[in-house]
Design a protein that fits this description.
The chain contains eight helices and 20 strands. It is an alpha+beta fold. The strands form four sheets. Strands 1, 2, 9, 10, 11, 12, 19 and 20 form an eight-stranded mixed beta sheet that branches. Strand 19 and strand 20 form a beta hairpin.
Length: 366
């Protein structure tokens, strides 16, 4: 078989963005996806929020790639007709004890280069989000939403137009390094695929794919966290996204988001799981209502309808901060192998910037 210049493992939004960035007329790129189509896991089961970049420590990959990716996403939307909208986001302090956290996030966001952040007091809340109850807020005008399917299709078509080959229902099962190449065994294929470079963008399976190449590092081990959403029966007049003050990095709390059709939903929560399970437990309705009622006082329990669920790959099991792992593994004797592990939020926002970062690690031409 012809030697492949780069194989991308995984066709979620990050794998697709990476394939689109690497594909050129003078090389060949192959994408392996274990599912029958793209984006069937984390990339299509999230809040579809374009994050501004204010939650993450300065100089972390999450901070830098979120801010850069957010700017790129809005540019892609304008240039290629991908749906994006700057809805703005209001973070709310529901009690005076939470105001200090808002001030800390304001300072963190400014340090990260987030534009337009503004601390607002109680009297300003009704003009920004009528019906929201809070003692203070942090306004983020650069936060917005994106149609994740449109974004993924853009990257997919761009990669295909540049000659990328997508192999669907093709699960990587073994990796052998010899003669300066990676020989990739794929379920259902008789012969391995020889590749010069491999980009492990396999999301929920990325730690297992790394282990196939011999990188069985405890620091790379993923913890799956399920997030459920509840839709609202009746539309609200609230236009921006509304978030509570976060209590950990396991999730950003039960927040209110809106989709391109103007429908509202609440979520996600954070439940540790060890298997793919996208059912929504209707019994969680009461806990969602309790959390959201802190800032939506008129919300009724029967307004909440079970919606969708997703699973995010976390590197932390206790809610502490862990940065993205995006590493070229020459130091482990694996030149040209790039691991992307723990790409949880803000992975969707950061996807085009992550792709550029990977290209730079590989010293890939523009």
């Amino acid at each position: 078989m012809e030697t492949i210049d780069a194989v991308v493992v995984g066709a979620g939004v990050v794998g697709l963005a990476t394939a689109a960035r690497l594909a050129r007329a003078d090389n060949n790129v192959v994408v392996l996806e274990r599912h029958p189509r793209h984006g069937l896991e984390t990339s299509s089961r999230n809040s579809e929020v374009i994050h501004a970049g204010l939650y993450y420590p300065a100089d972390s990959l999450k901070a830098k790639l979120c801010v850069a990716g957010r700017r790129q996403l809005y540019g892609l939307g304008e240039k290629h007709g991908i749906f994006t909208r700057r809805t703005g986001k209001l973070l709310v302090a529901c009690v005076p004890e939470e105001v200090a956290k808002l001030e800390s996030l304001h300072a963190q966001g400014r340090a990260n280069g987030v534009e337009g952040l503004e601390l607002v007091d109680k009297a300003d809340i009704p003009a920004l989000a009528a019906g929201v109850r809070a003692v203070a807020g942090l306004w983020s005008p650069e936060t917005g939403i994106v149609d994740s399917e449109e974004l993924m299709r853009h990257f997919l078509l761009r990669a295909q137009d540049a000659g990328t080959i997508f192999l669907w229902s093709s699960e990587l099962t073994r990796v052998e390094r010899r003669d300066g190449l990676y020989h990739l065994g794929v379920k259902g294929m008789a012969d391995p695929i020889p590749a010069r470079c491999v980009i492990n963008a396999s999301g929920l399976a990325s730690d297992r794919v790394a282990a196939l190449a011999g990188v069985d590092d405890p620091g790379y081990r993923l913890h799956w966290v399920k997030g459920e959403y509840f839709s609202l029966r009746q539309p609200l007049s609230i236009k921006p996204l509304v978030y509570p003050v976060p209590v950990s990095h396991q999730g950003l709390g039960i927040h209110l988001t809106i989709d391109r059709q103007g429908r509202h939903r609440l979520g996600p929560n954070a439940v540790a799981v060890d298997a793919l399970d996208y059912d929504v437990d209707a019994g969680h309705r009461a806990s969602f209502h309790e959390a959201a009622s802190r800032y939506l006082p008129d919300l009724r329990l029967d307004d909440l309808l079970p919606g969708t669920a997703g699973i995010r790959p976390k590197l932390s099991s206790d809610g502490s901060f862990r940065d993205f792992i995006i590493t070229e593994e020459s130091g482990r004797g694996l030149p040209g192998w790039v691991n992307l592990i723990g790409i949880d939020s803000p992975g969707l926002t950061a996807s085009p910037a992550i792709a550029e970062f990977v290209a730079n690690l590989l010293e890939w031409p523009s």
